[in-house]
Amino acid sequence: MDATHTGLVKFKSPADSSLVEIVHVIKEFRTEKGVSQDIQDRTVSRQPPQTPSEQVSLRYASAARFNQQSNQVTCVLNTRTEILETIYHWFGGDADEKGRSLRTKGNPRGQVFWLDGAAGTGKSTIAQTIAHHYHTLGELGASFFCSRDDAECSNINMIFPTIAHQLCLLIPDLQEHVSKAMQKDPDLSSAFLSMQLEKLIIEPLEAMMRERDHACPPCLVIIDALDECKEKKATSTVLSALAVLTARGRLSPLRFFITSRPVPVIDRGFHLTGLMKDTSVLVLHNIPQDVSQKDIRVYLTDRLSAIAQSFGLGSWPTGEAIAQLVQRSNELFIYAATIANFIEDPNTSDPMHQLQVVMSNMFIASPKSSPHRQLDTLYLTVLHEAFPDISKHQRDRLRTVLGTVVLLLDPLGPESLEALFELDKNTVRTTLRHLHSIVIVPEAKNVPVRLIHPSFHDFYVDRERCNDINFGVDASVQHMSIAERCLWVLDTLRPDMCSIGDPSLRNEDVMDLSARISAHIPAHMQYACRHWASHLSNGDVHDTVLDLLLRFCSKQLLNWTAVMSLLGDLNGAITALHSARKKVQVRLRHVVYARTADICYWLDNRK
């Protein structure tokens, strides 16, 4: 393979080498349209254009910052105090004279703090509280809140560029040095993570401090929910990059606060790279039970008292009821939060009845040995209360709507979901009306539907946990259903989608490009363009989808490439073609389908 294709794929046969042609065509198209590889932000409609004075050209995830609307949930007053004190004293490097801190493992004075906790233990809420605290003090350098339901916030390659961008906002003198690094190597945004960290963050900081002739004060960088990045195996490379620089003593003045679930790949990332030598670890699910139960009791008392006041219920509920809920929570804050949301549901306006439903414990989900038993039972209770006598029509509609919300790679609003699946108006809001305790359904248009907590995704796609046949979703089947709908949408593409009229114009020369994209390429079409191949790769391919894929390859490939150029995501187009071809090849090996070879031909020989 020549140098221009380094890092794309390694071709193993003469037939595979023809795929280079389509990659080359896209790269030429990118150059002709003026889309700078890996630098132009792929979501031009989501970020304002840079001013002429700004020299840093980085793709960054604006939605990953702590103060974005979807992230703003902090700890209730007088909860998590011991945990917060432990983190504050770690960052400050001072002793806890009052003795309220918790015991940690590892190096208490390390440059890295790892908050390790099972799903639902409140890691992100703690991270939000920490971010707000240090932002107020002017000591928050950057934050990246990973999220599996946002393509950018789950992209591991966006973490260090986004941190570099935010550091430049905090320390304007740093911007010049980051800009020089980008000018020297424009492809840093897609480089190895270790190189990104060193060239975009560490070396610019060192150069700035040499220029100033004095050190910078300590600066906190937060990476929350690292395990939610879509490339699970690659998450350890973030930790490997940090390990190399901590071992060389070059991470200062930055201090990293990282949260994650206790997944093997991240555990190995800390222990096998040597990073544990410079890491302080607090395991949330191992802190004293009385501390967790005290916090949940305070939280539930606060939430339920507010509900009682708004409904004029006096001293409801009883202390005994709260004690039972605390016991059932199994130290999971998401259990307590879901109960409170369920009781407060505005569609029922009957908190006393809702509490009775929760206390009845009618629907038993996971086995007794499962750590998710109480949470799964609660989720099933919510679903049964919303659909007590579910019909086949309701079941199919719920599977389409909620099953899609659970698996989307970027969140969509109700209207966009309806457009993607050709559903009747208000179908999404009607279907999710009684599920406000687990799903956020916005009243305003063009605001995305979101799960309140990712633990519901894990529950809903696991048949052993969601063991009622009326609920749950087969992830591979639903992924393919979404892929099919995406391909139908792509079949409506046409030349010059944004009516620019001059194909020679570069993106930056179209002054109103963002407005044109919004007007001519609606959200569901943008989603279909970006994610059809990902859903295809994660699903079970059937003949209908293969027919649609062949039609797309033979009729719409150029129009799709043009739209991906307008969206600034031609790198994503190359990735999509590779993953689609790989999926079709697997199908070709296992199932005889006359037109599979035709699809491979089109993917290999795009002219």
Can I get a quick summary?
The chain has 607 residues and is mostly helical. It has helices at 14-17, 19-33, 81-92, 123-137, 159-170, 172-184, 193-212, 235-247, 264-271, 289-311, 319-328, 333-344, 351-360, 373-386, 392-407, 414-421, 427-431, 455-460, 475-490, 513-520, 523-537, 543-566, 570-590, 596-604; strands at residues 105-106, 112-116, 140-145, 219-224, 254-260, 279-283, 439-440, 450-451.
Can you describe this structure?
The protein has 607 residues and is mainly α. It folds into four domains: 3-33 and 475-604, no CATH class; 62-286, Rossmann fold, CATH 3.40.50.300; 289-360, no CATH class; 392-460, Arc Repressor Mutant, subunit A (Orthogonal Bundle), CATH 1.10.10. The chain has 24 helices and eight strands. It has helices at 14-17, 19-33, 81-92, 123-137, 159-170, 172-184, 193-212, 235-247, 264-271, 289-311, 319-328, 333-344, 351-360, 373-386, 392-407, 414-421, 427-431, 455-460, 475-490, 513-520, 523-537, 543-566, 570-590, 596-604, and strands spanning 105-106, 112-116, 140-145, 219-224, 254-260, 279-283, 439-440, 450-451. The strands form two sheets. The protein has a six-stranded mixed beta sheet. Strands 7-8 form a two-stranded antiparallel ribbon. α8 (235-247) links the parallel β4 (219-224) and β5 (254-260). α12 (333-344) crosses α13 (351-360) and α16 crosses α21 (523-537). The protein is globular, with a radius of gyration of 25 Å. Residues 1-56 have low confidence and may be disordered.
